[in-house]
Amino acid sequence: MYLKDTPPxxxxxxxxxxxxxxxELYEEDVIEVIDFDxxxxxxxxxxxxxxxTRVEEGIRNVIDEKAVIEISDSDDDDAxxxxxxxxxxDAEGNKPTRDDASCIFQQHKGSVFxxxxxxxxxxxxxxxxxxxxxxxxxxxxxxxILNCTGHKDSVTCVQFSHDGTYVATGDMSGVVKxxxxxxxxxxxxxxxxxxxxxxxxxxANVLLGGTISGEVYMWRIPVGDWKLLPGHGSKTDYGLILxxxxxxxxxxxxxxxxxxxxxxxxxxxxxxxxxxxxxxxTDMDCHSDNxxxxxGGVDGHAVVLKTQTGKVGYV
Length: 315
Prior knowledge:
It holds the Pfam family WD40. Keywords: Repeat, WD repeat. This is Anaphase-promoting complex subunit 4-like WD40 domain-containing protein. It comes from Periplaneta americana (American cockroach). It is a single chain. By secondary structure, the chain is mainly beta. It is built from two helices and 22 strands. The protein has helices at about 15-25, 45-70; strands spanning about 85-90, 95-100, 110-115, 125-130, 135-140, 145-150, 155-160, 165-170, 175-180, 185-190, 195-200, 205-210, 215-220, 225-230, 235-240, 245-250, 255-260, 265-270, 280-285, 290-295, 300-305, 310-315. The strands form six sheets. Strands 3-4-5-6 form a four-stranded antiparallel beta sheet, with no helix packed on it.
């Protein structure tokens, strides 16, 4: 008697028949059958170890090959071809990892702190690192075209000028250097004390640099003429040149923001501490209309203000 809605058993579907079907199903997946004689298990331990090693290596190779074949047999006609050489084992020889990088630059001998791409074509990159070095190199090959030597501390600021003619490098000791790409030579250098950031003007060869003391230097490159945007004793953490190219916004460690007239080197607006942020400012950006500016800080706030009036619109 069958339970309700339960189909009847299939005739001749004994356990023996099921086992035979399973044997047929998995027979093609068997790589090799090895007869094992327990009586000879300890006769030659060195030979056993060698055989085990060879068997383990064979199994790993089969697994690796099968994984690549399964990926290659995908039904996706648009899939990129699999590069078997792209798979490599980690330090312990375990998981296969894949590296699709077209270029890896490995010339630094310490942590890399900063990087920037040449803005016009993007075929060059500049990197600065803990090893007191900056390099300009080709992004398609990693070939070094310029060694930026002579820094006295970790290089923490690097940036190409707006048209890629120059590249500026700065270190933690305050040494700032400017290099000309076409001649692969240094064209200017200065020292300002502890440096926190560098920023090129987006339409002229003018370079701004912020310091721990709070002053912001503005240099005309390569002649070196300079102006000083005054601070108020608090470290400057971030600087931004507004889209009009005539004003700059500077954020400070105490949470205050200043809008400067760059030509006159005077403060247009000063948004004091606690009115916007209560801690260091980490980032800023300005809308193309030159009016709305947004800033972010470690206090967890994003503040929107109007650069024309200095009034905070949203916190």
